[in-house]
């Protein structure tokens, strides 16, 4: 089964990491398998408890690439991810290893599969101007501007996603061309062409939504018992971090930050964090239901997922 690329996608708290670890063991471990994270929060150092990052011991036994590779003050774009993932996968394939990509950042996965558009490099001065405009006019006003100039992009970018909203307007003002048109002209080849290997994509879906909600609640309780608020307190103590950064907008961290600022009570924080996590899971499941290139949907426990993937690949 060497030379394969397997992509495991699923909503938060569904058990993706456990499934990847089981698949890693089943396929022969370190000599035969390379694990690559597909998660926009796990890239950040110091965001450990609230991201449900594999523990130090787990990472020692199941090393994941693209974990702890950025400081929280830095950005990490989808283009960064695709370039990094391609590099790691080519190295692994040259060694005859099977690559298992695992995570829940659907935009990363989609751009990895389809390729990325050749967009202009960021313009810090223009971005600062747009950031100031957003603070003065509000994100709804900027989104309305995007809807007028590029309705196709506006349909795909939520007003509550300032990073993507500002990027779309930045590209429009720099190039005079809608970002959706640049997406349409996407010149980046798909993953199969770039890597010379077919990507087998599996969606891990919960068999019961209420069971997933219970897992989300239990995981949040475990995070709190492990010191999640202490982790965010340490991040807040840094003078270079703020809620405008992508790292600090990660689900759970924003709610914890606001609670520590006195905006919410402890009970309100817990409720808000749980709600935000459930909404994230719902969006992730919507992505998967609309994903046209899925090899299969699996709904069982980690061991059954590994067995099903191996059985399925054996037929191909």
Quick rundown:
With 316 residues, the chain is an alpha/beta fold.
Layout of secondary structure:
Blueprint: E1 5-9, H1 16-26, E2 33-38, H2 56-61, E3 64-65, H3 78-94, E4 98-103, H4 106-114, H5 124-137, H6 139-149, H7 151-156, H8 162-175, H9 179-184, H10 191-195, E5 199-204, H11 209-226, H12 228-236, H13 253-260, H14 266-289, E6 296-298, H15 302-314
Parallel strand pairs: 1-4, 1-5, 2-3, 2-4, 5-6
Helix pairs in contact: 1-15, 3-4, 5-6, 5-8, 6-8, 11-14, 12-13, 13-14
Structural features, described:
With 316 residues, the chain is an alpha/beta fold. It folds into two domains: 1-116 and 200-316, 3-Layer(aba) Sandwich (Rossmann fold), CATH 3.40.50; 124-184, Histone, subunit A. The chain has 15 helices and six strands. It has a six-stranded parallel β-sheet, sandwiched between helices. Strand 2, helix 2 (56-61) and strand 3 (64-65) form a beta-alpha-beta unit. Helix 1 (16-26) packs across helix 15 and helix 5 packs across helix 8 (162-175). The longest helix is centred in the C-terminal third of the chain and has 24 residues, at 266-289. 34% of the residues are buried. The mean pLDDT is 91.
């Amino acid at each position: 089964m060497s030379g394969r690329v397997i992509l495991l996608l699923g909503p938060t708290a569904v058990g993706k990491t456990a499934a990847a670890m089981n698949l890693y063991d089943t396929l022969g471990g370190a000599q035969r398998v390379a694990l690559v994270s597909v998660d926009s929060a796990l890239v950040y150092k110091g965001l450990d408890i609230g991201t449900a990052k594999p523990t130090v011991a787990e990472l020692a036994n199941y090393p994941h690439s693209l974990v702890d590779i950025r400081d929280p003050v830095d950005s990490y774009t989808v283009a960064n991810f695709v370039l990094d993932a391609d590099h790691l996968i080519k190295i692994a394939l040259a060694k005859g290893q099977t690559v298992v990509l695992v995570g829940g950042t659907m935009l990363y996965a989609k751009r990895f599969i389809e390729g990325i558009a050749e967009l202009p490099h960021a313009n810090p001065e223009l971005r600062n101007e747009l950031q100031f405009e957003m603070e003065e006019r509000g994100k709804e006003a900027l989104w309305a501007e995007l809807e007028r100039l590029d309705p196709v992009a506006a349909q795909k970018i939520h007003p509550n996603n300032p990073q993507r909203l500002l990027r779309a307007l930045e590209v429009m003002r720099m190039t005079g061309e809608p970002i959706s048109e640049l997406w349409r002209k996407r010149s980046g080849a798909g993953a199969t062409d770039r890597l010379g290997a077919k990507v087998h994509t599996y969606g891990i879906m919960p068999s019961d939504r209420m069971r997933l909600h219970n897992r989300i609640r239990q995981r949040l309780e475990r995070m709190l018992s492990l010191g999640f608020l202490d982790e965010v307190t340490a991040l807040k103590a840094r003078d270079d971090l703020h809620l405008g950064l992508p790292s600090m907008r990660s689900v759970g961290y924003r709610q914890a930050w606001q609670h520590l600022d006195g905006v919410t009570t402890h009970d309100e924080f817990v409720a808000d964090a749980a709600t935000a996590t459930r909404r994230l899971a719902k969006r992730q499941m919507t992505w998967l239901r609309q994903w046209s290139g899925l090899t299969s949907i699996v709904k069982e426990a980690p061991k059954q997922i590994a067995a099903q993937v191996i059985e399925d690949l054996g037929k191909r």
